[in-house]
Amino acid sequence: MAWNPTLAAALLAAASITAVAAWLPIRFEAPPNPLGIVSVATVTGYPAQKEMFWLAFGTGAGALVAWLVASFFARRSPEPREQIRIEVAAAASLCSALLLPSPLREAGIVACGVFCFSRVSKAPHAPEGLVPVPHEESQAQRPRVESLLVGFAIVGFALLRPRIWLSLSNLANGVPDLAFASDDWGFLSELGQHLAWADAVRRGEWPGVDYFSLYGPLVSLGIERAWAIAGRSIATMTLYVELVSAWGAVAAMWLAARHLRHRVLALLVPLLALPIRGRYGLGLTGLLFFSYAITSGRAWPMLASGATAGVALFYSQEFGLALVLTAGAGLAVRRNLGSCIAFVAGLAAVVASVSAWLASGGALGAALHDMVSYPTWVMAGFGKLPFPALLPALPLPLDRLFAGGTILLRLAHATIATYVVALLMILRADRLRPRRLGSDLSRLRDELRDDPRRLGIAMVALYGLIAFRSGMGRSEIINLVQASGSAGILLVVALDRTIEALRHRPSRGLATWRLAALGVFVSVGAFLQYSGWVFVQSAIETASAIGSIASGGAAPRGDPAIARLAAWVESQDLDDDDVLFLPSHAAYYYLTDRRSPIRFVVAQHLVTDEQRRETLERLRANPPRYVIWSPRSLVLDGIAHEQYLGPEIMRWLQDEYALLRVQDQSSILERRPSADGSAR
């Protein structure tokens, strides 16, 4: 089995680029904020543009150096033992870059690099010409029983979600919505916004016109359709959301299984990439259909892939766009007119249908404006949390290398590294000779076209790399883990290939070393440390939930204060939009079955100064009778709610409203009477 020197080259490139980056005299200034966005980044003056610079520099320069080194190494053919020594030395160079202080860092990198190049230079010359890359093994002849067993296991693993079973029980027992109420961000804002948006759709309101949503309109429409089937309740919504996420996990595991020689290894994906949310899972579903299409040659899977891309675009535009771009790259490689027509037809059918639905309510332009603008606002700092920077953390302390406080840093950079190195190895950077780059790129395209399984796994890496931008927007653990779903698939595929190499005597030593290195990478990269724990915890909680249901366990109780406030609102003789809940109590609109008098059900969604002006104009044109303000709710990112709302809105509230009563720490404000005794 021929040696692929790309891994050693990538390790040396990562070490050298890290050292160079540490010495670059680059300073970033806080960018202007003409939109008036309020976030941690804008309030603290954090230069968010440096993240894109370092991402582009690290991936671009790193890939370039790795390609040049790999193409040089490919000229020689070291003995198997020398291959191991070279890769160990390359790994040592990266360890030097990450663990040693300067100048020991630079000395270690140089020493390891010199060793690698000297050992390669002493090896005999490789044979002239390029040996064809063997095609990925076809799985068409796999036993049906094995496929069924793995399929059942995949579904079983995906259903290890306690909320699925608790929601089924709550739905069957008719547990009231107020039993789920809790005075926290998760219920009042995170869950509450989806409840309010879906309720708006149920009442015939339109996205972009009547309400603002962070996501595409199909998120809220899906919940509303679930209510139409199983009844309007929080239990129904929770069940729907959990089932969509479970399908995302199924898609991830089944996509991995299609590229594995040992399919049972697909069950490891949740241990390395959990949770996989429905938004990310839609992209993986599209790739799954695409994989079926290019391996079978049938049109319907490609049609389904295009339709999935359309759904993904109107469900979560960031991941939908990542899928469309990835599929476009795959179609460009395939150069098959029938495949292009089928994909575009599926995409166009969904886009046309959703657009027609939005146009029927006069909301097409407004909804598309919000969908297109949202990624732009994220790039400008909306909801921005600083991405964990590697250079200031160097050298990494060995005594805290596996500490919980470093999970975010390790997972973020290990995920990016997985995508870049996977692409370099799948595309065989060592076979792209600088002096024959044009002809070698043409040959590579032909190889990928003729080897659909190799193309399919390359598309998984490309999708993950593009979609990772979402995790960089709001860099907290849950978003970064969601963006590592493709990395989990790639790591399992790498494990599968390494295990397969153990069967061949010439490559057994190298495979043993790579297996150990993969284990260290997964451990240090925090994939198993976070996702593995989440999976085990979900399995335990699922067993506990099923046991509780079987024994007739108690239903949730809810927060009495929320129930009392909702009851007070319902006891008033008010118009449908006569109550404004501030600052982030979106769940009350659902609990009291009322529409928001403004488009934004959460104060933090007031992204720009223009939106604050729009909100103030709506309030002045149709002021609600009551404003209910609760200071108990969680302050997001340590920023006061008043900063999100802006001084003009706060001043208008103070001028127009007076305190009526305080109930359970919530202030109920009533509109002041005018001079003639009527409401202003």
Summarize the structure.
With 680 residues, the chain is mainly alpha-helical.
Task: Describe this entry's structure for a reader.
With 680 residues, the chain is mainly α. Among the domains are: 1-129, no CATH class; 560-671. It has 28 helices and 4 strands. It has a 4-stranded mixed β-sheet with strand order 1-2-4-3. Helix 8 (185-202) crosses helix 9 and helix 19 runs antiparallel to helix 21. It is globular. 45% of the residues are buried. The mean pLDDT is 89.
Mind describing the biggest β-sheet? 4 strands, mixed
Number of helices: 28
Going across the biggest sheet, name each strand in turn: 1-2-4-3
Total beta-strand segments: 4
What oligomeric state do these chains adopt? single chain
Mean pLDDT across all amino acids? 89
Radius of gyration in whole Å, from Cα? 28 Å
Helical fraction equals: 55-70%
Distance between the termini: 83 Å
Structural class: mainly alpha
Note poorly predicted spans.
none
- Shape, per Cα inertia axes: globular
Strand content: under 5%
Strand and helix map with partners:
Blueprint: H1 6-23, H2 40-44, H3 49-73, H4 80-99, H5 104-122, H6 144-158, H7 162-172, H8 185-202, H9 217-230, H10 234-258, H11 269-272, H12 278-296, H13 299-315, H14 317-334, H15 337-360, H16 364-379, H17 407-426, H18 437-450, H19 452-473, H20 477-482, H21 485-501, H22 508-524, H23 527-550, H24 560-571, E1 579-582, H25 587-591, H26 609-621, E2 626-629, H27 641-645, H28 647-656, E3 657-663, E4 666-671
Helix pairs in contact: 1-3, 1-4, 1-5, 3-17, 4-5, 6-10, 7-10, 7-23, 8-9, 9-10, 10-12, 10-21, 12-13, 12-14, 12-19, 13-14, 13-15, 14-19, 17-19, 17-21, 19-21, 21-22
